């Protein structure tokens, strides 16, 4: 891990830790409206994908692939959205959102459509357990 790296306070507030990969921390967005993961590479100062050295970019792509497959396995979505926007939080992070035609924002983007619905403690524990079990298995 980069000694100068720290998690952006907004990401820390909005997400829960799930796992640490070789390059990135995998976190669960605290919004029960959508199965939503966030990968945050532990590279100080990285704002864009192109800020990562070549090997780190490839590693991140493998970690995105792994997390996306777990999300698909656990939630069986109609569509997976993968995006690195960074308009509100500049620290490089990648959103992986499982979308269904019945979700509250479909087919529009999830941002700003409906109020965030934080997980209850029970929902959070069960969601994290299922995702961590799938991560460990694959």
Structural write-up:
The protein has a five-stranded antiparallel beta sheet with strand order 1-2-3-5-4. The protein has helices at residues 9-14, 54-75, 121-137, and strands spanning 15-20, 24-29, 36-41, 79-83, 94-99. The protein has a single domain, classed as 2-Layer Sandwich (HIT family, subunit A). The chain has three helices and five strands. Helices cover 33% and strands 21% of the residues. Strand 1 and strand 2 form a beta hairpin. Helix 2 (54-75) crosses helix 3. It has 138 residues and is an alpha+beta fold. It comes from Alkalisalibacterium limincola. Residues 37-106 form the HIT domain.
Kindly list the characteristics that best describe this protein.
alpha+beta; HIT family, subunit A; 5-stranded antiparallel sheet; 3 helices; 5 strands; 33% helix; HIT_Hint; HIT family protein; HIT-like_sf; HIT-like; catalytic activity
**Cα distance, first to last residue?**
23 Å
**In terms of structural class, how would the helical and strand content be classed?**
alpha+beta
Q: Strand portion, in percent?
A: 15-25%
Number of strands: 5
Helix content: 25-40%
Helix count?
3
In the residues, how many domains can be counted? 1
| Subunit organisation of the chains | single chain
CATH C-level: Alpha Beta
> Uncertain segments of ≥5 residues (pLDDT<50)?
none
What is the level-2 CATH architecture name? 2-Layer Sandwich
């Amino acid at each position: 891990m980069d000694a100068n790296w720290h998690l952006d306070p907004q990401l820390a507030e909005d997400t829960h830790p799930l796992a640490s990969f070789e390059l990135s921390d995998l976190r669960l967005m605290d919004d029960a409206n959508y199965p939503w993961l966030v990968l945050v590479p532990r590279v100080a100062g990285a704002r864009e994908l192109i800020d990562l050295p070549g090997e780190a970019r490839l590693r991140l792509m493998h970690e995105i692939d792994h997390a996306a497959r777990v999300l698909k396995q656990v939630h069986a979505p109609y569509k997976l959205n993968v995006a690195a926007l960074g308009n509100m939080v500049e620290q490089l992070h990648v959103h992986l959102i499982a979308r269904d035609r019945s979700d509250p924002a479909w087919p529009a983007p999830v941002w700003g459509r409906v109020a965030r619905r934080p997980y209850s403690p029970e929902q959070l524990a069960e969601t994290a357990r299922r995702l961590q079990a799938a991560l460990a298995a694959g």
